[in-house]
Here is the input.
Amino acid sequence: MLSRRPHRMSQMPEAATSRFVQLPLWSIVRAAASAVLLSSIALAPAAVRAADPSAGQATTSRAAREDAIHSIPFDRLSGEMRSHVSNVVNNASLYRRLPTQTIDCDPELYQFIIRNPEVVVDIWQVMGITSMTLARTAPGHYQAADGQGTVGTVEYAYRSADTQVIYSQGSYDGSLSPARVRGECVVVLKSSYQRGPNGRTRITSRMDAFLRLDNVGIEWVARTLQPLLGKTADHNFIETASFVSSLSHTAETNPAGMTRLSRRLVHVDAQTRQKLAEISVRVADRAEAAQIGMAAEAAAAHVTAATASPAAVRVYRADGEPQQR
Here is the structure.
């Protein structure tokens, strides 16, 4: 039996957390993005070692925007939701494609978190690094608040193994704005999965965010809001990707610890908590099986190579003595 060592997830420096929670309207994007896990909100990630910041640069280009819109399965959305999503993406005040990230993560755990975003938010609350709340009101529907003046609703418009479309609407009423600001957001998450020769899965995630603001001047958005939010959103997207990978690694090496953690998620229903614990055990079993398989393959390859080596092949004469080559 291979040993499973506990893995400790480090926290983001306080300066990074406090800097981000002061941002207003991007909280709508944060709430929507958290619904697909890889969000731009104040979080508790490990060091960015699993995520690759150079895998894909952030962009606001027209080509990326059109590509993102074309990736939305409008024909699979309900009539009302199709209208909401179309209105936001076609009249967005802000658009950004965040840096594409590739992480090492168990695909079952990844899909579970995507479909149950309240689990991640509650983990962050247990770790004491966010004041955000995300309460499920119906399957695929959430009520969100960031504790800084932003409240809103988050709804899955569409979800599959490789595509998540999230629609969010909300408002900000706080000290950073003289008047209440309302807005809508659409987030599109595309995920691809590649199993490596070592038996581990690498998941590549690409996120596009569209934000439409009411009663906000375009000049203010261009000069003030967009430059401020862009780099911060990119940074937190990268950090969250690393957190997800770290969570998967913790499940691999310390499933008992994940089970204990699941029991502390008081804002998550019992069935979902139980499923997190069960998935963590399966993640650990798969990781151990992959290690055993790799070790067996390596041993078999070594034996094959040794057997096929000319130095290992000896020819004997009739008298039993080795024949000279």
